[in-house]
């Protein structure tokens, strides 16, 4: 147990956590130079310093277990406060800095969840959910890494998702998705129909002459055409991701609404 009584973390889990902790000093640096409200800035700085110590010495977690638990609660309170602010009034009027704060709190909440969580698999799923909510509601916060500016939460969720590939070997395979293609539009097509034309032919006869054409078969070799028919692949690739789903016949209908669901649940309920 690397983290004492807090969390029986595997070597792989520690590797993932180490990747995420690498962003922490850069986040702290950006917050110190920001113009965020003092309340948010002070909370972020206060809870960030202990996890910078984790980067230096993992034993600090076990030695200060209660402090880490208290900081997780402190982040949760601030997170809920900003979340409420984001849902007050009209979306376009939400200040950009509030959305940035939500992104940073999401990131720090993920770090503390992974450190303090009891069950790694369940905690990882919860962390992916927090990251997805941050991506949907927060604003992009860029951090420099290896000479590149990276979208903080996009990078975080990528790391988490790679570590969360489900084992579907014991599950019965789902049936392939059937996609019906309506070819009736071809009957009234008033432009040339080209089947897998060469780039040279298309360029000479259509692109250079500014003549439109309907192109067929040019993406037949794309792996997505095969993989995206397979719900087992989709669940393995993104089953734990949270996505917005529009429910109802049309926007103007009284029954129209929007829900957030796990992608795997959406597939199970609507596509299989």
UniProtKB/TrEMBL annotation:
GO biological process entries: methylation
Protein keywords: Methyltransferase, Transferase
GO MF terms, alphabetically ordered: methyltransferase activity
SUPFAM superfamilies: Clavaminate synthase-like
Transferase found in the keyword field: yes
Signal peptide annotation: none
Protein name: Lysine-specific demethylase 8
Taxonomic source organism: Culex pipiens (House mosquito)
């Amino acid at each position: 147990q690397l983290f004492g009584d807090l969390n029986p973390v595997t070597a792989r889990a520690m590797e993932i956590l180490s990747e995420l902790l690498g962003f922490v000093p850069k986040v702290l640096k950006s917050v110190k130079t920001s113009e965020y409200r003092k309340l948010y800035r002070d909370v972020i700085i206060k809870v960030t310093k202990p996890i910078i110590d984790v980067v230096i010495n993992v034993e600090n977690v076990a030695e200060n277990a209660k402090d880490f638990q208290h900081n997780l609660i402190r982040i949760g309170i601030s997170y809920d406060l900003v979340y409420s602010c984001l849902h007050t009034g009209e979306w376009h009027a939400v200040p950009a800095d509030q959305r940035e704060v939500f992104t940073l709190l999401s990131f720090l909440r993920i770090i503390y969840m992974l450190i303090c969580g009891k069950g790694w698999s369940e905690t990882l799923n919860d962390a992916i959910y927090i990251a997805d909510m941050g991506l949907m509601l927060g604003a992009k916060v860029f951090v420099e890494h290896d000479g590149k500016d990276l979208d903080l939460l996009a990078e975080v969720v990528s790391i988490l998702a790679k570590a969360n590939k489900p084992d579907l070997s014991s599950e019965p395979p789902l049936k392939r998705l059937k996609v019906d293609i309506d070819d009736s539009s071809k009957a009234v097509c008033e432009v040339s129909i080209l089947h897998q034309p060469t780039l040279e032919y298309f360029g000479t006869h259509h692109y250079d002459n500014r003549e439109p054409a309907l192109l067929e078969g040019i993406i037949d070799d794309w792996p997505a055409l095969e993989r995206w028919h397979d719900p087992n692949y989709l669940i393995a690739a993104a089953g734990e991701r949270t996505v917005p789903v529009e429910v109802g016949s049309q926007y103007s209908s009284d029954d129209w609404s929007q829900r957030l669901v796990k992608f795997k649940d959406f597939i199970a309920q609507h596509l299989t």
